[in-house]
Description:
By secondary structure, the protein is mainly alpha-helical. Helix content is 69%, strand content 0%.
Amino acid sequence: MLAKAHITAGMAAAFSIIMPADAETALTVVAGASLGCLVCDIDCDNPSEKSDSAHWRRVMIAVFAAALAADHLLDGIMTRTLAESNPYISCAGIAGFVLTCAFASISDHRGFSHSLPALAIETVFVKMAFPAAAEAFAIAFITHLILDLMNKKPVRLLYPLRKGFCLGWFYADRLANKVFAAAGSVWLILAVIVSLR
């Protein structure tokens, strides 16, 4: 699937599972899911997918930064946990995340960046840097993997093993992508309304 489907489904899944009861928790969900929903596609090599992914990755980084800024203004969960945590551990988490993403960006598409080891490693680094956002990050990442497993191109879940897995149901850039993006949008709106009511 392309970026819009991953964004809406990842955010919707995170909101549905975590069910934030207040604005502070909702900001942690937005922050974590905004990173998790598209970090897998840092390895895109197809020019049209690369352009789509790069554009929406920039948008999601801006959403992540806005969630952090809003959390800071509200003296929210992420700000308080960051203040209470060891700064060396937080910096190590950020550095580890950046280095893992750098490695993922040079791997084959749907290789390391779409694997269970990447999910585990990156979730640990997010937990070190922004503990409250780690759960939403992992949920959005897993949602990305599930959507990509439905495509015709294999996903190397068990990297470094060469074998990939796919259900072969859809092409990533065709009608199914639009359907999942639309359904994800509706799901996200409903999840936000239900969780914040």
